[in-house]
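Q: what sequence does this backbone want?
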């Protein structure tokens, strides 16, 4: 067997069992199947599978499973193909890959080299990410989404965004340096750095591509709570407005952030740090064409 499929039994809010079973029945003689048992287990399983000689490591689940499996593959340093079987709640990364490259069969040798991001905190913690990083409101939405049951996809993250906005104070002042430039202080409701097109099913970077060596920036600065709420339907369907005085859009390869307020940050929908952990400074960099990837149809 050349493929190892790592799956999260709880992916898709426990609604993915039928799709996973269908995929497993179709590929039971082509791949080994390993279930995750606890948070972070997929990282360990993927790293070990790469070290054991599997040439294709598959994440069967949502963006969280894809994030963890990709981190395990990248930590291994092995030249293997990372594949995604999208059966989770949002499937943002699979959406971006399929839109740019299409889907393929598990035994299809075709794959594509894409960029990844790294985020490092001053306390030494470090993660890779494959779809995007978000801080401020984006991080708080991730926290709120963990408290909501029975919803998935846009409904889940839309409700989480509404709850986060209700509880968010005035946007804090945050210092940001793009690509080693001068530090600039801005009130920041949210800063997202996208490799792919979506974040929590919201279309924040409609023109993003996965292999251009750059992040797409969505920096919402001095937004009022109600103005941000009114923008959510547009973000779900069309993406951010092209021209808005408090919304910066652009591209960059690196970002540094400093904040007097502790940061809430997610990577691919997984929490990197929460405010109670007291992280105040981050560095984010892109690593061009670091990961070989494809998406397998369910």
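A:
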């Amino acid at each position: 067997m050349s493929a190892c499929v790592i799956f999260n039994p709880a992916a898709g809010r426990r609604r993915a069992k039928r799709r996973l079973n269908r995929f497993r029945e179709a590929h039971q003689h082509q791949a080994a199947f390993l279930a995750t048992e606890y948070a972070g287990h997929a990282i360990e399983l993927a790293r070990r599978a790469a070290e054991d000689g599997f040439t294709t490591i598959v994440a069967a689940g949502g963006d969280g499973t894809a994030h963890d499996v990709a981190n395990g593959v990248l930590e291994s340093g092995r030249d293997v193909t990372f594949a995604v079987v999208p059966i989770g709640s949002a499937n943002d990364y699979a959406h971006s890959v399929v839109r740019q490259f299409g889907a393929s069969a598990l035994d299809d040798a075709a794959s594509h080299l894409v960029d990844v991001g790294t985020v490092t905190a001053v306390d030494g913690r470090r993660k890779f990410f494959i779809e995007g990083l978000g801080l401020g409101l984006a991080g708080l939405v991730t926290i709120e989404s963990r408290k909501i049951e029975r919803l998935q996809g846009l409904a889940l993250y839309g409700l989480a965004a509404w709850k986060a906005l209700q509880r968010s104070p005035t946007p804090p002042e945050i210092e940001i340096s793009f690509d080693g430039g001068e530090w600039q202080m801005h009130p920041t409701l949210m800063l997202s750095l996208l490799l792919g097109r979506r974040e929590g099913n919201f279309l924040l970077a409609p023109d993003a591509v996965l292999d251009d060596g750059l992040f797409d920036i969505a920096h919402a600065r001095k937004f009022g709570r109600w103005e941000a709420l009114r923008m959510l339907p547009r973000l779900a369907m069309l993406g951010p407005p092209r021209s808005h005085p408090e919304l910066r859009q652009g591209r960059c390869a690196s970002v540094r952030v400093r904040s007097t307020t502790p940061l809430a940050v997610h990577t691919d929908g997984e929490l990197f740090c929460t405010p109670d952990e007291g992280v105040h400074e981050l560095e984010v960099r892109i690593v061009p064409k670091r990961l070989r990837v494809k998406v397998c149809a369910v």
